[in-house]
Amino acid sequence: MGVIVVNTKAYEEGVGDRAVELAKIMEKVGKEYDVEMIIAVQPCDIYRVANETKIKVFCQHIDAIKYGSHTGWILPHAIKEAGARGTLINHSEHRMKIEDIFSASRIASQIGLERIICASVVEIASAVACFMPEYVAIEPPELIGGDISVTKAKPEVVSRAVEAVKKVNEKVKVLCGAGIKDGKDVAKAIELGTEGILVASGVVKAKDKEKVLVEMAEAMVR
Amino acid sequence: MGVIVVNTKAYEEGVGDRAVELAKIMEKVGKEYDVEMIIAVQPCDIYRVANETKIKVFCQHIDAIKYGSHTGWILPHAIKEAGARGTLINHSEHRMKIEDIFSASRIASQIGLERIICASVVEIASAVACFMPEYVAIEPPELIGGDISVTKAKPEVVSRAVEAVKKVNEKVKVLCGAGIKDGKDVAKAIELGTEGILVASGVVKAKDKEKVLVEMAEAMVR
Amino acid sequence: MGVIVVNTKAYEEGVGDRAVELAKIMEKVGKEYDVEMIIAVQPCDIYRVANETKIKVFCQHIDAIKYGSHTGWILPHAIKEAGARGTLINHSEHRMKIEDIFSASRIASQIGLERIICASVVEIASAVACFMPEYVAIEPPELIGGDISVTKAKPEVVSRAVEAVKKVNEKVKVLCGAGIKDGKDVAKAIELGTEGILVASGVVKAKDKEKVLVEMAEAMVR
Amino acid sequence: MGVIVVNTKAYEEGVGDRAVELAKIMEKVGKEYDVEMIIAVQPCDIYRVANETKIKVFCQHIDAIKYGSHTGWILPHAIKEAGARGTLINHSEHRMKIEDIFSASRIASQIGLERIICASVVEIASAVACFMPEYVAIEPPELIGGDISVTKAKPEVVSRAVEAVKKVNEKVKVLCGAGIKDGKDVAKAIELGTEGILVASGVVKAKDKEKVLVEMAEAMVR
After folding, report:
1. On the CB side of B161, how many CA atoms lie within 13 Å of its CA?
2. pLDDT tier for residue A152 given thresholds of 50, 70 and 90
3. How far is the C-alpha of A194 from the C-alpha of A175, rounded, in Å?
4. How many CB atoms lie within 10 A of CB C140?
5. Residues of chain C where predicted confidence (pLDDT) is lower than 70
6. A61, A134, A139, A195: the active-site residue
7. Which residues of B touch C102 (CB under 8 A)?
8. What Å distances lie between residue B177 and B30, B56, B87, C107, CA to CA?
9. Is B91 annotated in the active site?
10. Residues of chain A with C-beta less than 8 angstroms from the C-beta of D124
11. Among D45, D129, D139, which Cα is nearest to D91's?
């Protein structure tokens, strides 16, 4: 079963009530098409989304800390208790020290949080795969935030990342983390060997979110 | 009216259900003694505490961002929407760049979040007072997290911080941000010219939280 | 006596032999026009420039450390021993935590290094002036690195920064840290109340560095 | 041929004239015992040590930058021009973002600087080996800076790191980066499969530096 991860970032359209509404649409589409849906929200929205929907809620980041004196850092245990099922780690907008990626990943694993570790290039995808996360999301910088989609750009970086990650550990799944605009891109990402996608503005800022999600889900299960 | 700010940090005793319970005790004691109570919690606990109690909920940190592509950073607008009334800034466990202190403080002000900016020494207290926050919390490093209380240590740093901050702007209130263990310390802090206290383990890790809060509130209104 | 501070950044034209050559030109022009010349170079170039010229060499940054286990951080004592006479602190390309600005500034002062602390806006200029550096350089973001010069843009931010800094401490000198392209800009900066300029590409990337420096020095002493 | 890397950190005993003196002793001992000697110094000391001795001089850190507007960051091209032959990357006292480790490592490689990337645990050693540096230095946290030496502590972490790194790429050499106090520790490190050591206070703070270096070099070639 493919997975669609929607990252709401700090978009106005993905905060508070809008995060809950989006999660409800995702829940509906996911059920209809048998596609796993994950929404990654601001930490303050985890509790609401987890309580008002049944889809998996992820945090967008965690810090490499355990219970203690860590004012203002995001505590994995706290987001877990609020209802989070996993977290993004090392997103391109929140790069982390390698030691912290390792530690945060280990703490998450210990308390049962799933991990999507992001990586920009094949070498870094290999490197973070050494930490045995559930997912590695490959985000080629040339595809991030621009208008270029993975179907148009040279897609070798994605297929090479899949190969590199699987060489480290076959169980680690690869997500296509950039360049996804529509169903065609999703189909291409799956064709390139990824097992899902990580998408943000393409869904969160869409006028008709359900339509976009349906298109993507259809492309995934085809 | 004096103010008691309780920072739950990432303490196990101050997360999730325990954050809500603590906030309820604070609400009760605050009402009884006419002391303003503020609880600063992990971002994922803001929504619950804001919805289940009437005391002011603060975030422990915000990032200097507005709506946009800022995955994993704490968005002031999001915590506001979740119910936060203010935030700590530059806590000793989360020091910030001066530019970010200024920007975060300005963004908070624009959307109506109160600000407690922390400072370790008199010169830094003066500096952050230039950003016109509601509060500056002075946290002398020699008093942080140790067993030394402000009543026993030389308290000049606190009174000098009050003087320095008021010289920059009379409206900025000063909190005593370290060395507070009991009612005597609160009385001393008020005597030194502060208008409230910022406390963490002294309350959060206390066996009888209500008793400690009552003692502190009594000392504040005496 | 006005001061011209040239920051070579990490420009190819300002590293190694080229740093030494530039410093020699600055020495010559400075002597001719009785203008103080300071060159801020990469740490690895301090020793050479200090030994081959007589102008003041500054480091572009120091870390807030003393002798000890601080691998890879820039030790103020080491650059001092290599011949540095001062340092930039909190440059717009290297923003620092407020605690580190304070500590680095204090360490520099203790060992006799002069300090130029950079600030982007009036409020931050006031704040860093509280740390009593020799200089505050005001770098309005709208003037940095662009084609807009301080003579064309609204210059109130510079004159207001001068006023704000002098209000904190009259002895702190203000430099105009952005928007300086030629002699006219220097004259304007002085007219606005600054006591010198901090310039980078305008000099370092100029084809005829001596000509530009002469023009700036002339404008300063006129 | 084994390699001894001496990191002078920010130790008073390893700065300026003392860095040059230490490098001269290393040069002498290295020649006598046919052991490669590398000294990693503060950036401002690279030029002198490179010009006054023939041993390889490394920087203690580089930033992931090329020529450009990067005030105050350590430019790989600049330290190369000053005489550096390589650099430490991600030392335990200067942890870096994974993207910066990759980029700094790639830039260094492009301009002919050798790289020693540090790692605290086996998983991170594997990860950084994916970036194909000349060396990975394993620094088990339980051995850093303490009195415990690698001969006394359970040494599995070192031999497992060697195995893990070689599995990624056989050409990457492993250094024992902590727990080295004397000749016995060096012999143990070599026995565990490393091809050299990274040492700091054990040499830099020794009263008789030559004696310690001779003992270590002897142990290495035995």
Report:
1. 31
2. confident
3. 5
4. 24
5. 144-146, 151
6. A139
7. 121, 123-124, 127
8. 19, 18, 14, 25
9. yes
10. 98-99, 102, 130
11. D139
Calpha distance C3→C198 (Å, rounded): 9
Type of residue found at B59: C
pLDDT in tens, B157-194: 899 999 999 999 999 999 998 889 899 999 999 999 99
Closest CA to C62 of C108, C124, C6, C7: C108
| pLDDT class of A179 with cuts at 50, 70, 90 | confident
Q: Among A59, A78, A88, whose Cβ lies nearest the Cβ of B16?
A: A78
Biggest alpha carbon–alpha carbon distance for chain A: 49
Query: Would the pTM of this model clear 0.90, i.e. be above it?
Result: yes
Identify which of D42, D74, D81 has the shortest CB distance to residue C78: D42
How many whole angstroms separate alpha carbon D17 and alpha carbon D31?
21
C partners (3+ CB pairs within 8 A) are B, D
Sequence length of chain C is 222
8 Å CB contact of C10 and D43: no
The alpha-carbon radius of gyration of chain D (Å, integer) is 16
Q: What is the pLDDT along chain D (222 residues), one digit of tens a residue?
A: 799 999 999 999 999 999 999 999 999 999 999 999 999 999 999 999 999 999 999 999 999 999 999 999 999 999 999 999 999 999 999 999 999 999 999 999 999 999 999 999 999 999 999 999 999 999 887 776 667 777 677 788 899 999 999 999 999 999 998 889 899 999 999 999 999 999 999 999 999 999 999 999 999 987
Chains A and C touch (3+ CB pairs under 8 A): no
Q: What residues contact residue C172 under an 8 Å CB cut-off, 6+ apart? A: C129, C132, C133, C134, C135, C136, C165, C166
Instruction: Dig out the tokens for B89 from the structure.
Output: 């800034």
Distance of CA B116 to the CA centre of its chain: 6
Greater confidence (A169 vs B149) lies with A169
Catalytic-residue membership of B139: yes
Residue type, D58: F
CA distance linking residue D179 with residue D150, whole number of Å? 5
D4 in Cβ contact with D176 (< 8 Å)? no
CA distance D45 to D17: 9
Indicate yes or no: CB of A81 within 8 angstroms of CB of B16. Answer: yes
Task: Report chain C residues whose CB lies below 8 A from the CB of D120.
Answer: none
Instruction: Point out the residues of chain B with pLDDT beneath 50.
Output: none
For chains B and C, count residue pairs whose Cβ atoms are closer than 8 Å. Answer: 58
Cβ proximity of D63 and D30 under 8 Å = no
Tokens encoding A205: 């800022």
Per-residue pLDDT at C146: 63
Nearest to A69 among B9, B65, B88 (CB): B9
* Interchain contact, C102 vs B123, CB within 8 Å: yes
Distance CA D104, CA B108 (A): 36
Enumerate long-range contacts of C169-172, CB under 8 Å, 24 or more apart.
Answer: C169/C129, C169/C132, C171/C132, C172/C129, C172/C132, C172/C133, C172/C134, C172/C135, C172/C136
- D-chain CB neighbours of C201 within 8 Å are 69
Distance to chain B for A222, nearest Cα, Å: 30
Q: CA–CA separation, D3 vs D23, rounded Å?
A: 14
Alpha carbons D47 and C83: distance in angstroms, whole number: 13
Give me the torsion for CA of A196, A200, A206, A212, rounded to 10°.
Answer: 0
> Which of C93, C96, C98 should we substitute to test contact with B (largest number of B Cβ atoms within 10 Å)?
C98
8 A C-beta contact, residue A102 and residue A131: yes
